Amino acid sequence: MVNRFLKAGVIGVAVICLSGCGSIISRTFAGQGHGNQYYPGVQWDVRDSGWRILTILDLPLSLVVDTLLLPVDAQHGPYE
Q1: Collapsing DSSP states into helix, strand and coil, what is residue 79?
Q2: Measured between alpha carbons, how far is 28 from 19 in angstroms, rounded to an integer?
Q3: What gap in Å lies between CA 1 and CA 37, rounded to an integer?
């Protein structure tokens, strides 16, 4: 029983630490995103990688962060 709570706690901490990670990486590190575009964090999360399970956990949080940053992305547009 304690082991189950420990695993849930570790997963919870990982989700909190990774929240919006795709959004942050795609906007801050050169060459990590797919260029200037809308929802770059979501596109970062759905790419094919070895960390697929973590990016699936991060996807809803990146969606929220990308939606909040949509006015900033629109100001930097237009994108193709």
Answers
A1: coil
A2: 15
A3: 46
